[in-house]
Design brief:
The chain is built from ten helices and no strands. It is mostly helical and 171 residues long. Helices cover 73% and strands 0% of the residues. Residues 41-46 have low confidence and may be disordered. α1 (2-21) runs antiparallel to α2 (24-41). The protein has helices at residues 2-21, 24-41, 43-46, 52-66, 73-85, 93-105, 111-122, 131-139, 144-156, 164-170.
């Protein structure tokens, strides 16, 4: 897929060259939808962590899991990640929440609750940001990064109280 790789590597140069020939409104009108379409169609080439084969395999495993196959929490977390980030598939925050919860329930106390916390902190697709849910997810995690976010929550009052003493304990 050399064309998609070329476009991904040179999108800024292509935009600049197009801008020299057309006014800003035309550039925005033509390039923005083209870039969005390109990004969705070739999301796999933009991801350094997952190949098309990886995504296809994860989606196959997701279907088998729904049919009763046991999967480790780390694999379920990866399925959540491709939904959250839109890697090879459209972004789907609701599906990501489902898979991160399944991953946590299957024993992933490191990545899944942290990713769920980040999803709720920033929002994803139709899932709006919710700092209370983010805090709750981070509290389930054994990841030091999640502990930092718990400290931030206490410092910034995400859950309705500000407590610098508790913030320092978590930092």
């Amino acid at each position: 897929n050399r064309l998609s790789t070329f476009i991904a590597e040179h999108i800024n140069e292509l935009t600049e060259a197009f801008s020299r020939q057309y006014d800003e409104e035309t550039v925005e009108m033509v390039l923005a939808p083209m870039y969005e379409q390109f990004k969705n169609q070739f999301a796999l080439t933009l991801s350094a962590n997952y190949s098309k084969e990886d995504v296809d395999h994860l989606l196959e495993l997701a279907n088998k899991y729904k049919d009763g196959m046991h999967l480790s929490g780390v694999v379920l977390n990866d399925i959540g990640t491709i939904h959250q980030e839109g890697i090879g598939i459209p972004i789907d925050g609701e599906a990501a929440v489902y898979w991160f919860n399944e991953a946590y329930n299957a024993g992933d106390t490191l990545y899944a609750p942290t990713n769920l916390g980040d999803l709720y902190r920033k929002g994803c697709g139709t899932v709006k940001p919710d700092l209370t849910k983010a805090f709750e997810a981070y509290c389930l995690s054994t990841d030091p990064y999640a502990h930092y976010r718990i400290g931030q929550a206490y410092e910034e009052g995400w859950i309705g109280i500000t407590d610098l003493g508790l913030a320092m304990k978590w930092y």
